[in-house]
Amino acid sequence: MTDVDVRRVTVLGAGNMGHGIAEVAAVAGYDVVMRDVEEELVSEGYESIEWSLEKLAEKGRLDESVADVLARVDTAVELESAVADADLVIEAAPERMDLKKEIFAELDEHAPENAVLASNTSSLSIMEIASATSRPESVVGMHFFNPPVKMALVEVIYGAETTEETAEAAYGFVESLDKTPIYVRKDVSGFVVNTVLGPYIAEPAWMVSEGEATVREADAAMVHRRGYPMGPFELSDLTGIDVTHHVREEAGRPIPPVMAEKVENGDLGRKTGRGHYDYESGAGADYTPDDVGEFDTLRVEARMANEAARLIGDGVATPEEVDTGVRLGLGFPEGICRRADDIGLDAILKKLETLSEETGEERFAPDDHLVELVESGKTGRAAGAGFYDYDSGGEGPGDYRFLNYDLSEEGLLEIELDRPERMNALSTDLLEEIDDLLSSVDVDSVRCVTFEGAGDRAFSAGADIEGFADRSPTDAMDVTPAFETVEEFPRPTLAKIEGYCLGGGLELALACDLRVATEGSEFGAPEINLGLIPGGGGTQKLLRMLGETRAKELVFRGNRIGADRAEEWGLVNRAVPSAESDDVVGEFVDDLLNGPPLALEVAKKVMNEGADASLDAALAMESQGFGLLFSTDDLREGTAAFREKRDPEFTGE
Ligand code: NAD
């Protein structure tokens, strides 16, 4: 195989995954052929694409018309012609090895010599699938998550003979879809994400089987104490208990008795109305923070960290890749490697050793890589190194875990909230990082600050309510200073909003001076629905900005409003189509970067402080500021440039 320039993509299967993959490829501009075995199935898949594209268009997330995207999707029933011109084929047929092999043998016969042949399998061996062809070097795993339109992660899996070129072509293709690929460098069962997920589901199941915990305790503790998006049993009900059961059976792993029992009784989860919870006559997954009890969360996290160590030690993935995988693929908070570094790898190792001794169970046997790390003193964040290196400033994560930032030479400080897996929810740590960054940056080198959220779903969907239930009122009243730091930062700040801007996220946007939103964005203060009120300045900021009538509507009703109304109400400066957002923000930023820093600083200060003062006091502040600016070089430069009809070059002196 030579270098591949992917233009035409063929997707085999128009089911759940196939139609979604075809859709994202078409949205990204590729010509796509979607093939299934019957006309009816192809049409259903095509209709699903159309429906989904219309939803995207309604939310303002398509840069062109639905018809234009659909025009790039062809359908087919016959395989030979469907793949004849393909640069890349992605197989998304049912998860059966015999079927996959049959399909790849056919592909071998009919696909162009240069084509990359990918399988979307979630659990089968890429190597074995590739063995059905005479060109295993061109076969690669490309594991999308469900639903492909929403999920940002794709695992790119090397089979034993996959070449770098093939894997790189697949990786580049995923990037061109605006998704995040991670390499899985060896064809291990479960790849990266499901390998770490395994113990999250299975260990609580063992604990419940052994009478050491209840289903509700496990789910409540993992969600409300440890911040996972869904309890293990709740997740298992959603996926289908039979699915996990089948995968474990195929991989030759022992099956926890509660799992086996449910499958025997036909209680497979939501799809049958009953699983670990009762969805028909009961209230479904109805655990609450009060159910937390004494559940041993370390036992579960230690096993996940042990699996991560194995992947890293075996050269399957790096800590960064493991963490990216579980964050984007499963919505896990921060990533298991970072979390393990915080817990302490020594504590994790000790937990595994104790359990191993007590039970003699193989699954607790500590992995060699974990042992090596601990023995070499790399016991985690507190020690300066663990899975990551914290001291060298080299390989490990930057200084911040939940923020990315860049300060340009011109003085533009761009800050990205980086928790896309949690829709950039503001955790205490994230807020502390914002506070720390703005408090420690050299203000003189900054002329303007922008905030945005990673991914395209949310600026920030709110405060992270993890641990709320455990907090005492005095703790909770101790609101983080981050909002104030943003508000008082002496340079203009702008929130670049795309998607949800809710609760704490809205308060962060309100702490900024200016706001530009894409048309599909949604704004709201949903705190009231939780029995709370906005606690980061929201009630007072909204009151001052929107007036009592509108502010009370937002706060009392807890409903969302769209970007158009937000613009009409004066909550944002502009609501723009998403394709134009960068340009509009660019124009704002240009003015702020090139404006006179001192005058902007004084304007910000007198306007912020004046808003809360009497008119007399505010006017006094203004004239004081006005006077102050009279002695500056910037004023001289501004007036000279005006006279000379040129652009001023302000220095902030
Ligand atoms: P699905 O049953 O919804 O769709 C599979 C489609 O493939 C069906 O429409 C079927 O008619 C069609 N098909 C069968 N033989 C075919 C052939 N020879 N050529 C073309 N199409 C053929 O299944 P799905 O959920 O979309 O899963 C497809 C693959 O994606 C599986 O390998 C699965 O493991 C993997 N996967 C699924 C998920 C998920 O959550 N559903 C997530 C990641 C990966």
TrEMBL record:
Residues 190-279, 298-390 form the 3-hydroxyacyl-CoA dehydrogenase C-terminal domain. It comes from the Archaea. Residues 9-187 form the 3-hydroxyacyl-CoA dehydrogenase NAD binding domain. Pfam families: 3HCDH, 3HCDH_N, ECH_1. It is an enzyme of class 4 (lyase). Keywords: Fatty acid metabolism, Lipid metabolism, Lyase, Multifunctional enzyme, NAD, Oxidoreductase. InterPro entries: 3-OHacyl-CoA_DH_NAD-bd (IPR006176), 3HC_DH_C (IPR006108), 6-PGluconate_DH-like_C_sf (IPR008927), 6PGD_dom2 (IPR013328), ClpP/crotonase-like_dom_sf (IPR029045), Enoyl-CoA_hyd/isom_CS (IPR018376), Enoyl-CoA_hydra/iso (IPR001753), Enoyl-CoA_hydra_C (IPR014748). In the N-terminal section; belongs to the enoyl-CoA hydratase/isomerase family. This is enoyl-CoA hydratase. It comes from Halogeometricum luteum.
